[in-house]
Amino acid sequence: MKFSENIQNIVFQYVSDIVTGQEQEAYVIGGFVRDLILGRGSKDVDIVVEGSGIKLARDVAHRIDPKIRVSYFKSYGTAMFRYKDTEYEFVGARKESYNHDSRNPIVEDGTVKDDQLRRDFTINALALSLHQDNYGELIDPFNGYSDLKRGIIRTPRDPKVTFSDDPLRMLRAIRFATQLNFHIDEEAFDAIVSNVERLKIISKERINEELHKIILAPEPSVGFKLLAKSGILSYVFPELSAMQGVEKREGMAHKDNFFHSLKVLDNLARLTDDLWLRWAALLHDIGKPRTKRFVEEHGWTFHGHEYKGAKMIPGIFKRMKLPLNQKMKYVQKMVSLHMRPIILVEDEVTDSAVRRLLFEAGDEIDDLMTLCEADITSKNHEKVQRYLHNYQIVRKKLLEVEQKDRVRNFQPPITGEMIMQAFDIGPSRIIGDIKQAIKNAILDGEISNNFDDAWAFMEGFAAENNLKFVRSKNDITLIQGQAKSEDDR
Ligand code: CTP
Q1: Which terminus of the chain, N or C, has fewer Cβ atoms within 10 Å?
Q2: Which atom of ligand 1 is nearest to the CA of 118?
């Protein structure tokens, strides 16, 4: 089979000229060939040469444009350069053998077949020749082409060896199965099951890279079901694994929260590509196993699971080495607020409840609503339509109240600085109390969100709490005005 038409660019052409002239063999190999056959574009090209990859990269780059910068790692024998937003990586064909405690192999020169054999999956071990005599010919000693067409993930060697050598490949198998909607060959899957513990030599960052790719796939549930079935999930993510299962008492069963969460994640995946919102979907019910209660004659409850879940997030993120920054706070916020919007659908709901949610969710209110809509997993079409309609009502209320009161990005009309000046006091608890009282009054709709109303409210608060003003409202406005014009200068 030939793919010469598909590899017609100047880089491949120069590689071909050089290796043919030197009676060497070179191939484009790996993910690029896989994606080419699948009809997916790829910006990463791996070229393997039976000889020095570094020398070939330099020669090719020099012919294209001597100004191209080639970077290389001498110890790995690899070199790469960028040309027209594609990365070309060159490496000498190699044989690898592994030490039990590390993913870093001992490398020896080898043939292209050795190089194909050392790769993770047959679909990633396809090569196209770049030699003029058989330019574009598919070199496929392990039947990767047929696996690609049948949608099978299989290893070129005994899978126990492939996975034990580099346990990250177990996660890669599941990741590719999810991204491509492929089936993992049975023998390979059994080898994953028996090698789960080998994941201990893999860094958490690498594990996360694969988890992120699974989460970002079109149907992430495929990957999480495989992670659960293989035993990897309970090893890397016990809290998620604990959500599996159904318990029944007095004829009443609760739903399987693991499968429910996966359904929510799949639903959300159809609405957004945002990685962290997808994480929030996966984790929105993570507090359920720890809040599960059976109440006689009532059934199962998970009271407060959203707060319990939000509290669990930092521990989970820390252990898994996920980012402990705004991303984590965002996930926490989504988890803790996911039960709130539905309450707002009731007719008698006050503007004050709507304002509070707007204030707490801030700019993330739309994401929260998207999560809630994805959280509808009923199989009953009519119910789904009714719930979606309810959320339309909530969205409308949110919009109306926001247009009226602008609390979404609430900025207090009276700052701590102004309070300190008004009463001539230093930083202290009372300032926080005053700010909080003003904020509550605004959110509860007692006063409008402006300086004059807030000042009048503060006068009342001061009288009740025996606080003496040392500066008037006009003084404060004047000071603020001066400070502002200095800032502007
Ligand atoms: N490879 C491997 N074992 C690994 C990682 C990579 O055998 N643990 C090989 C595979 O042949 C793979 C190639 O190296 O095709 C390039 O790896 P990489 O760029 O990580 O992956 P791709 O297959 O290109 O796929 P993606 O870009 O989606 O990660």
Answers
A1: C
A2: 7
